[in-house]
Amino acid sequence: MPVEIRELYIKAVIDTGKASAPAQLPGETSPAPATTDPNQQQDDLIAVCVEKVLEVLKNRQER
Questions:
Q1: What was the pLDDT predicted at 25?
Q2: In this structure, are residues 41 and 34 in contact, taking their beta carbons and an 8 Å threshold?
Q3: Distance CA 48, CA 18 (A)
Q4: Which Pfam families does this chain map to (predicted)?
Q5: If you write DSSP's letter for every residue of 33-51 in order, what string do you get?
Q6: pLDDT tens sequence across 25-58
Q7: pLDDT value of residue 33
Q8: Fewest CB within 10 A of the end CB: N or C in the chain?
Q9: Domain count of the fold of the chain
Q10: pLDDT, tens digit, for every residue of 3-29?
Q11: Which one-letter DSSP state was computed for residue 26?
């Protein structure tokens, strides 16, 4: 009997302060260079989030 887990945990931390580069988790690609355009930064953040969600869904489908 297959076990189905219906749980997705997404955590996002946005820090607007000037800090050093964030630590990178294993398997992550390096982030794109920072832009000064807030709209572009928001679009980049959304793109990264969508990519991660799609990756989780793909991994879940493979099981």
A1: 61
A2: yes
A3: 21
A4: DUF5908
A5: PP-S-HHHHHHHHHHHHHH
A6: 665 665 555 567 888 889 999 999 999 999 999 8
A7: 58
A8: N
A9: 1
A10: 777 887 888 887 777 655 556 666 566
A11: T
**Alpha-carbon span 42 to 48, nearest angstrom:** 10
Q: Which two tokens stand for residue 40?
A: 């572009």
Residue 18 falls inside a structural domain: no
Residues 22, 9, 52: CA angle, nearest 5 degrees: 55
Is residue 27 in a domain?
Answer: no
pLDDT for residue 49: 93
Q: Which domain holds residue 48?
A: 36-63
Which distant-in-sequence residues (6+ apart) come within 8 Å of 35 by Cβ?
Answer: 41, 44
Q: What's the pLDDT at 19?
A: 57
Distance CA(49)–CA(3), nearest Å, equals 27
